[in-house]
Design a protein that fits this description.
There is one protein chain. By secondary structure, the protein is α+β, with helices and mostly antiparallel strands. The protein has 3 domains: about 100 residues, Alpha-Beta Plaits, CATH 3.30.70.1440; about 90 residues, Multidrug efflux transporter AcrB TolC docking domain, DN and DC subdomains (2-Layer Sandwich); about 160 residues, Up-down Bundle (Multidrug efflux transporter AcrB transmembrane fold), CATH 1.20.1640. About 50% of the residues lie in helices and about 20% in strands. The protein contains 12 helices and 11 strands. Strands 1, 2, 9, 10 and 11 form a 5-stranded antiparallel beta sheet that branches. It starts with a helix and ends in a 13-residue tail after the last helix.
Length: about 400
């Protein structure tokens, strides 16, 4: 705080080092604007977006890599006048290139060394823009014509760097995120601003953490469904039933609800880390359903009804379920309370497991027996006759 207050105009933000192999200077929000138009048109859109983004308290120090702040001198050739004097535009261009940029015309050798011979106007004669008009070009009949009679000079500004992305002219808008403001919200906000400012003429892409977030978000649903399908098939083979796995998988949405609640209460977001935690949670929470359903099936084989069997199973399996949950939650608490480099990832995984296992376990003890009493098939003791 003393450092921040002692330097006037200092812009600073405290962040933990990233754990995704990215540069510590990279920002969470990185949106690339692409266009086939000019940089001036792109800069106009960027300025409008930046003006509104600066008013959003969720975006910390928004910035853009497209800045029209490099002085530039443009030379406009009077083509008709140059043509009347038999002077081509290419001649004017080569003359300016040689006089201002320099050109290697030959080499000479002295002893064992070779030296380049460069033709260029002296520094003192090319310090001012008006010095360009004092250069002469060769015209008709080897007549020397002063360049000031053929061109007009315009002072403008241009981008320091002409950035391209996917072979298109581009500008990258970047920003850090304030606590409690998710990356998904920030990306949606910037996308809305760009659409309003450009009318849909600008293409959007992403880099860095934003790109990873978009790519992982698009595959989360597929991976989640694949995990559920795999677990369902394994359980169907284990229980030799297509109904019992469905009863067990009732625990999954309960745990996911607990995970999302924990993220909301702790200011977390749906990120790569929390998604990994949710996939892990699917395997952890289904263990509770397996304990209850498997034991209830055994009780039915001993002659109990479905209701009696599931009540007995829930009561007898309560202790191992609570012990499993306690072990998982206590093991995840250090992750949830982590600090230091890479803590943002460990925290979210930890809170997903803590919230998902806690709420999921409490609800599982009531929901799974209810689902079993409604959906489970009747298991009769061996040798018990089946009524017609």
């Amino acid at each position: 705080p003393q450092l921040y207050g002692g330097i006037t105009g200092l812009m600073s933000v405290a962040i933990n080092p990233l754990s995704l192999g990215q540069s510590p200077l990279s920002k969470s929000l990185q949106v690339v604007l692409q266009t086939t138009g000019s940089y001036e048109q792109l800069a106009g859109v960027v300025d409008q977006v930046m003006a509104k983004a600066g008013q959003n308290p969720g975006l910390v120090f928004p910035d853009s890599d497209l800045k029209l702040n490099k002085p530039e001198l443009k030379v406009d050739v009077d083509r008709e006048k140059a043509a009347s004097m038999d002077i081509g535009v290419d001649t004017i261009g080569r003359t300016l290139e040689t006089m201002l940029g320099g050109r290697e015309v030959t080499r000479f050798k002295r002893g064992t060394e070779q030296y380049d011979v460069m033709v260029q106007v002296a520094d003192v004669d090319r310090r001012d823009p008006s010095d360009l008009t004092n250069i002469y070009v060769r015209g008709r009949a080897d007549q020397m014509v002063q360049l000031g009679n053929l061109v007009q000079l315009r002072e403008t500004v241009a981008p320091k760097e002409l950035n391209h992305f996917n072979k298109l002219r581009s500008a990258t808008i970047s920003a850090n995120l304030a606590p409690g403001y998710s990356l998904g919200e920030a990306l949606a906000y910037i996308q809305q601003l760009v659409e309003e400012a450009s009318g849909g003429d600008i293409q959007l892409d992403y880099t860095g953490e934003s790109r990873e977030f978009r790519e992982s978000g698009s595959t989360l649903l597929f991976v989640f469904i694949l995990a559920l399908a795999f677990i369902y098939l394994v359980l169907a083979a284990q229980f030799e039933s297509f109904i019992d796995p469905l009863i067990i998988l009732v625990t999954v949405p309960l745990a996911i609800g607990g995970a999302l609640s924990a993220l909301h209460l702790t200011g977390g977001t749906i990120s790569i880390y929390s998604q990994v935690g949710m996939i892990t949670l699917v395997g952890l929470i289904t263990k509770h359903g397996i304990l209850i359903v498997e034991f209830a099936n055994r009780m039915q084989l001993q002659g109990m009804s479905r209701m009696e069997a599931v009540i007995e199973a829930a009561a007898l399996r309560l202790r191992p379920i609570l012990m499993t949950t306690a072990a998982m939650v206590l093991g995840a608490i250090p992750l949830a309370l982590a600090s230091g480099a890479g803590a943002e990832g460990r925290e979210q995984i930890g809170w997903v497991i803590v919230g998902g296992m806690t709420l999921g376990t409490l609800l599982t003890l009531f929901v799974v027996p209810m689902a079993y009493s409604w959906l489970a098939r009747v298991h009769r003791p061996e040798g018990d006759p089946v009524s017609a």
